[in-house]
Design brief:
By secondary structure, the protein is of the alpha+beta class. It has four helices and 14 strands. The protein has a six-stranded antiparallel barrel. Strands 6-7-8-11-10-9 form a six-stranded antiparallel barrel. It has a two-stranded antiparallel ribbon with strand order 13-14. The chain is rod-shaped, with a radius of gyration of 45 Å.
């Protein structure tokens, strides 16, 4: 028994305090001081009630705050999804608009050359030679599966781009008129002077080509237009090439040469048209000579 009281000393003390409180309250009630006891009890208990009430309110507000945060996060997530969808729709609309605008620009070329059969193509990659960064070789997203053949001319809405030099099943490679191995029969409609437009390393860094082998008495001058002459087996007559920037005399051949700035921007080619078929014209009167592509 003694061991029990020693082991449960705290419990025994607690019971003793409770018994004393019960006796104390009973005495107060017998003496008619119950209301005083009630007021004292309320006075003692009130601070604890106030603290527990505030703690409860705080916990409730804390929980409600996190519930509001969760609801707000859900709304944010929904808005982000909606914005992402709208951005995708806007991007698709912009791409469609650009494609339509691009094709519309070729409409005038098609109206002017009703014999042209064209295949739209996009540039997959481009490379250049020299320090100017101008393009001399383009890789397009169309190949033999789309009817593309080696030797077909390539144009943009601005003018001549070059010629297909190699064809794969779903892609082809285009040599631009700036490449030093390129050669195009060309003329100036203002003076009727004819020559060969060739790429030249000396002018590649400026994005220019050279119209060579002009007669010594050629009247071509700065500012004149240069276009394809139709001579040769590749390019049809009348495709715009560029403008003359400078005219000089070759001291070795005694022929004149004209530096030509192309109409097409060879620093950023994105879309082109491949001429898959056209009617070849003779120079001057535009009388059909033969049908078929280059």
């Amino acid at each position: 028994m003694r061991r029990f009281f020693v082991r449960h000393k705290f419990l025994m003390k607690l019971c003793a305090v409770a018994l004393l409180l019960a006796i104390f309250c009973g005495v107060f009630l017998i003496m008619g001081w119950g209301s005083l006891l009630h007021r004292v009890g309320n006075t003692v208990i009130y601070p604890f009630q106030w603290v527990f009430s505030k703690v409860g309110d705080g916990i409730g507000g804390f929980v409600m705050h996190f519930e509001d945060v969760d609801r707000l996060q859900e709304k944010i997530d929904a808005l982000e999804l909606e914005n992402e969808s709208l951005r995708a729709e806007l991007s698709d609309a912009e791409i469609l608009y650009d494609e339509q605008a691009w094709l519309y620009r070729y409409l005038s070329m098609k109206e002017e050359h009703i014999d042209y059969q064209m295949c739209a193509a996009r540039v997959i990659s481009a490379s250049g030679e020299g320090s100017g960064g101008f393009e001399t070789l383009l890789t397009l997203n169309k190949g033999s599966a789309h009817g593309i053949q080696k030797g077909m001319p390539v144009v943009s809405t601005s003018g001549l781009v070059g010629m297909v030099v190699e064809v794969g099943i779903n892609q082809c490679y285009v040599q631009t008129i700036l490449k030093p191995t390129s050669s195009v029969g060309a003329l100036s409609p203002e003076s009727s002077d004819k020559g060969l437009l060739e790429g030249d390393f000396a002018y590649l860094y400026q994005g220019q080509a050279v119209l060579k082998y002009l007669p010594e008495d050629a009247e071509i001058k700065e500012g004149d237009t240069v276009m394809t002459s139709g001579n040769g087996s590749v390019y049809p007559y009348g495709i715009p090439i560029g403008k003359v920037a400078e005219v000089s005399v070759n001291p070795h051949s005694r022929t004149k040469e004209a530096i030509v700035t192309p109409f097409h921007d060879f620093s950023d080619t994105k879309e082109v048209m491949i001429l898959t078929s056209y009617i070849r014209y003779t120079e001057g009167d535009h009388t059909p000579e033969s049908e078929g592509g280059a």
